[in-house]
Structures are given as structure tokens and as C-alpha cells.
Amino acid sequence: MEVQDATTAELDARTLYDILALRAAVFVVEQNCVYLDPDGRDLEPVARQLWIARDGTVVATLRLLRDPDGTARIGRVATLPSARGAGLAVALVRRALELVPDG
User: Fold this and answer.
1) What is the distance between the alpha carbons of residues 20 and 38, in angstroms, rounded to a whole number?
2) Which of 14, 52, 90, 99 could form a cystine bridge with 60, CB 3.0-4.6 A?
3) pLDDT digits (tens, 9 = 90+) for 64-101
4) DSSP summary character for residue 52
5) pLDDT attached to residue 38
6) 3-state secondary structure of 74
7) What is the helix, strand, coil percentage profile of the chain, to 5?
8) Which pTM was predicted?
């Protein structure tokens, strides 16, 4: 499985759409957590999106941020229900930690 990553600004519209759609499907629909997922942090210059795709479909995603004090923050980890149990979230977290110099 290949973990891909890019800043939000580097993403093509389709990949960003797929990432946001997966997050909405998992957090808003499946988990019934009614909140505004687009919180503005995805637009921060250092915000990174990590994802795993299968057959052109984003099946798992993670967002990596930096807080104002420099602390790295992992969040918005989501996996498509049909892709769960395959270690995708673990792979995303491992890659995120590799991207954090002090991680």
C-alpha cells in the first residue's frame, strides 16, 4: 500500500474532493457527528493531507497540522468501512510521524 501525501494546495481538485467526501461519510454520516469538517485548517500552508487510494478511490486519509507553537497534530483519520482491518490507518500514522522531524 502506498501512502501519498501533499499539502492541500498541491492537491488536484478530485483528490481533495475525495478526501473531504470520505471524511464526511465517516464522521458526519456514519458516526453522526454533526459538525463543520471544513474548519479552515486544511488551508494552512503547512497542512498536509495523507491518503491511500485503491483503484483510483481514496480509501483512507489523515490530516497533519502544525499548531502555532510548532506542535504537530494528527487528526481527521478516516478509513472507508470496506477497507477497515487492513492496517491502513497504521500506515498513515507511521508516515505522518516520519514527516514530523521531532516525531
Assistant:
1) 8
2) 52
3) 999 999 999 999 999 999 999 999 999 999 999 999 97
4) E
5) 82
6) strand
7) 40, 30, 35
8) 0.91
Would you give the end-to-end CA distance of the chain in angstroms? 22
User: Distance (Å, rounded) from C-alpha 84 to C-alpha 91?
Assistant: 12
The three three-digit cell numbers of residue 7, written as one number: 499539502
Distances in whole angstroms, Cα of residue 27 to Cα of each of 39, 68, 75, 82: 14, 26, 12, 15
The three cell numbers locating residue 41: 485548517
Residue 82 identity (one-letter amino acid) = S
- Give the strands of the sheet with 57-66, arranged side by side: 4-7, 48-54, 57-66, 72-79
Q: Is residue 66 within 8 Å of 101, Cβ to Cβ?
A: no
One-letter identity of residue 97: L
Cα–Cα distance measured from residue 48 to residue 64, given in angstroms and rounded to the nearest whole number: 5
49-68: per-residue pLDDT in tens? 999 999 999 999 999 999 99
